[in-house]
Write a structure and sequence with these properties.
The protein is an alpha+beta fold. The protein has 4 helices and 5 strands, in the order βαββααβαβ. 38% of the residues lie in helices and 33% in strands. Strand 4, helix 4 and strand 5 form a beta-alpha-beta unit.
């Protein structure tokens, strides 16, 4: 199975609220999230822009993570302060992932960058 990496860009409406929401969401994912989430990092590059880089073990972990967190109050708090502007998906996009993306009506905000051609990660 091949890893999936998502790089998300957010329009931040409330910088302090974004920082609080991200801290709570990251804590919840760390303690109760999908075990296939291998890395979960958020950045605020400007008062009105945030980014996330999320590494998943495989496409199943991507789907499982999103199925799990969308009902959490931490995710609701996050969505109250930021809008998803862009998703760059690196790795294989399975039918299950595509179905999830279609249901969320993300449309042209998602760019599939393709599977990894070569590389490695150090532990």
């Amino acid at each position: 199975m091949a890893e999936v990496v998502a790089i998300n860009r957010y329009a931040v409406r409330d910088a302090a609220g974004f920082d609080r929401a991200v801290a709570a969401l990251v804590d919840r994912v760390r303690t109760a999230g999908h075990p296939g989430v291998q890395g979960y990092h958020f950045y605020r590059s400007a008062p009105d822009e945030g980014r996330a880089i999320v590494c998943y073990a495989d496409a199943g972990a991507w789907v499982g993570h999103h199925d799990l967190i969308m009902g959490w109050p931490e995710m609701a708090a996050f969505r109250a302060v930021a809008d998803l502007d862009e998703v760059l998906l690196f790795g294989p996009v399975t039918a299950a992932m595509q179905g999830w993306l279609d249901r969320m009506a993300l449309g042209d905000r998602v760019r599939v960058m393709g599977p990894v051609l070569s590389g490695f990660a150090r532990g």
